[in-house]
Design a protein that fits this description.
By secondary structure, the protein is of the alpha/beta class. It has ten helices and ten strands. The protein has a six-stranded mixed sheet, with helices on both faces. The protein is globular. The structure holds adenosine-5'-triphosphate and magnesium ion (MG). The site of magnesium ion has 2 residues, from helix 1.
Length: 261
């Protein structure tokens, strides 16, 4: 099965952000094709997180525009999931007082599907909606290979399992664009490989495009269709993993960072 959509899921045009006198992003333009995995890499302080924050509406750019599915997006963090964009937080970020299954179900509370009318009327979600959501959450846990942890408390989970729960919680909202903030952060070798296999599959299996910020080069090279390289807030290279790997500007950006740090 190949992804159904063609086209552009996300386009950034001339994004500029400055914090006081510091230019964090300078005329950043990029496009992410629907059904692909796009990586944003670059040395510390390059502007990667700021770029995510612009897409999510946490940071308002001084210049430029964001287009989601070819329409101008005026991002507001609390409306993002309803629009089809979900971001995972750095780290794990689960609710400690809820079980794994409940955490995943909570990921769907801001979608219109389950209980918009109930919510408007101030009524509890119907039993049927709740059961359907529970089934969906269980299916996701199963697909991510962590169904056995459904009734566990987040505090008791191995770190790598917690990261997968967070992924399931993002997916239950059925995003069309999933933003992953350092998904491999804190994971060891084997867990990174397994995560890579999951991410590569997302466009096809969950019908969503993926954009990720990641320092873990192995993962980036393995899972991304396209990579955008930032350095000092500017796009210094972009292309396929092979093109980026062979681009001298990329080595320079990282070398410069190493020498400078
Ligand atoms: N809210 C803010 N106020 C002031 N400066 C900021 C703010 N957020 C980021 N910056 C600065 O903007 C630049 C880009 O930061 P950003 O966090 O986007 O980099 P990054 O590529 O995500 O780095 P890292 O790999 O270390 O996470 C840095 O110089 C940073 O200090
Ligand atoms: Mg960052």
């Amino acid at each position: 099965m190949t992804p159904q959509h063609t086209g552009t899921v996300l386009e950034l045009r001339g994004i500029g952000v400055s914090f006081g006198g510091l230019v964090a992003l300078d005329d950043v333009s990029m496009t992410a094709a629907t059904g692909t995995v796009v990586g944003v890499i670059g040395p510390n302080g390059a502007g990667k997180t700021t770029l995510f924050n612009v897409i999510c509406g946490f940071v308002e750019p001084n210049t430029g525009s964001v287009l989601f599915e070819q329409k101008p997006l005026r991002p507001r963090p609390h409306q993002l999931a309803a629009k089809g964009i979900v971001r995972t937080l750095q780290g794990v970020g689960l609710f400690r007082g809820l079980t794994v299954l409940e955490n995943v179900m909570a990921g769907a509370t801001h979608t219109a599907r389950a209980g918009l009318v109930s919510a408007l009327l101030g009524l509890p979600r119907s039993d049927r909606d709740e059961r359907r959501l529970r089934d969906e959450a269980m299916t996701l846990l199963d697909e991510l290979g962590i169904a056995e942890h459904a009734q566990a408390w987040p505090g008791t989970l191995p770190y790598a399992v917690g990261k997968r729960v967070a992924l399931a919680r993002a997916l239950v909202a059925r995003p069309r664009l999933l933003l992953l903030d350092e998904p491999a952060g804190g994971l060891g070798g084997e867990d990174v490989d397994e995560l890579a296999a999951l991410i590569v599959d997302l466009p096809r299996r969950s019908d969503c495009s993926v954009m990720l910020v990641e320092h873990h080069m192995d993962l980036v090279m393995k899972v991304c269709d396209q990579i955008v390289v930032l350095d000092f807030g500017r796009v210094v290279a972009s292309g396929t993993p092979a093109q980026v790997r062979d681009n001298p500007a990329v080595a320079e950006a990282y070398l410069g960072a190493e020498v400078g740090s």
